Protein: Diadenosine tetraphosphatase-like protein
Organism: Loigolactobacillus bifermentans DSM 20003
Amino acid sequence: MKEVPNMQMTFIGDIHSAADDLQVLLKALDQPHNRFIFIGDYIDGLPVQHFETGQQARALAPLAVLDLLMQRVQQHGDVALLGNHDDFWLGTAQGDAQAYAIWRRNGGQTTWPLLGLPHDAVQLAAALNQPPFKRYTDFLATLPLFWQTQHLLAVHAGINWQYPLNQQVRDDVLWLRDAYFYATQQPTFHEAMAQNLNWPVYHPNDTHQVIVTGHTPVQTLNRDRTLLKMQHDPADTPRYLIDGGSRSGVATAGITALTLSETGAFLAACTVINGQLRPLTDR
């Protein structure tokens, strides 16, 4: 009998309506022993990509992305986590005025006309709770904030280090950035080097699980990368940031995928940029 390979997990970073790149990624990485964990932010995005020589149009297909996710979750047992942009849709559908206002400023004014949705808050909420949009609203309402095993933890934005996982606040896990990334007290560069610490100094990974997050495009922290490995010191359990900046407008924007073993060992990574698969390392 042929030996079945050990299960591996492939984490997919923020997609932001890039159904074309997502299809390339799924086709390249879909294997029987590989489970996909989608990290959130499936909708919204910018329809152009900027280069030094000019700009190019990029297709936005939020419903096609959600259709692919629903198929993966329902037919293959994959996991899709909730992102803050997905929460905009969900909150607006529930009549949350704040969610509507934030969505309007952060992608809604592009997504709504694309889908033929009204701009009025009451009318928009009603539309999201009727066909053909209700099935997507219902799907988003089922998405968890976390996925974890003994060795792995995935969440959209990050965690508040002051609280255990079962006491995390919804807004924190959907929105955190610097408080999750960095140590509260930052030494100077020379002090960090003397202590064999990375600089800027990342917060120690107190969970001792390998953590995978999205939400913050890697290019905002390192303009030349689409995957970032974070460790307080060489012995610290790694954390990975995998928001490749999909549909953010920057030249290197794409969907990043990170494959780990069941125990959290790095196996492979890649980014799909404009339909082209580009391998990455964790260095």
Q: What stands out?
A: The two ends are 38 Å apart (CA to CA). The chain has a mean pLDDT of 94. The chain has one domain: 8-83+143-280. The longest strand covers residues 266-273.
